[in-house]
């Protein structure tokens, strides 16, 4: 996956980038190297928000999470995306079994 990381009201440090790469690399096996993954980190008052969007053919996987800690937000967003990917993969598998 190719990561496009941006920040709103926050400087995206190397530590944050490394945390994003480390967490989202778990999802690499489900996508091609050309797949783009848009990550937006933002700070609004005391809330740390992480948003991840992965456009796919005919679908968009998207998750966002707010917390007091940016690293915790990244962790939860990754878990939400993992669930979405598993659900999507199951849906595709079941669809293909039904057309045989």
Characterise the protein shown here:
With 100 residues, the chain is of the alpha+beta class. Helix content is 41%, strand content 35%. It contains two helices and four strands; from the N terminus they run βαβββα. The chain has helices at residues 14-24, 70-99, and strands at 2-8, 36-44, 47-56, 59-67. The protein has a four-stranded mixed beta sheet with strand order 1-2-3-4, with helices on one face. Helix 1 (14-24) links the parallel strand 1 (2-8) and strand 2. The longest helix has 30 residues, at 70-99. The termini are far apart. 15% of the residues are buried.
Low-confidence stretches: none
Major sheet: 4 strands, mixed
What structural class do the secondary elements suggest?
alpha+beta
Number of strands: 4
Mean pLDDT: 90
What fraction strand? Answer: 35-45%
Fraction of helical residues: 40-55%
Specify the overall morphology. Answer: elongated
Radius of gyration over C-alpha positions, nearest whole angstrom: 15 Å
Termini gap? 31 Å
Strand arrangement, largest sheet?
Answer: 1-2-3-4
Count of alpha/pi helices: 2
> Element order, helices and strands?
EHEEEH
């Amino acid at each position: 996956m190719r990561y496009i990381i941006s920040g709103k009201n926050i400087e995206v440090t190397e530590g944050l980038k490394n945390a994003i790469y480390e967490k989202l690399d778990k999802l690499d096996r489900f996508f091609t190297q050309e797949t783009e993954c848009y990550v937006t980190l933002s700070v609004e008052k005391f809330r740390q928000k992480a948003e991840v969007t992965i456009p796919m053919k005919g679908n968009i996987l998207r998750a966002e999470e707010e917390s007091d800690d940016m690293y915790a937000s990244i962790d939860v967003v990754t878990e939400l995306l993992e669930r979405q990917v598993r659900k999507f993969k199951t849906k595709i598998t079941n669809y293909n079994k039904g057309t045989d």
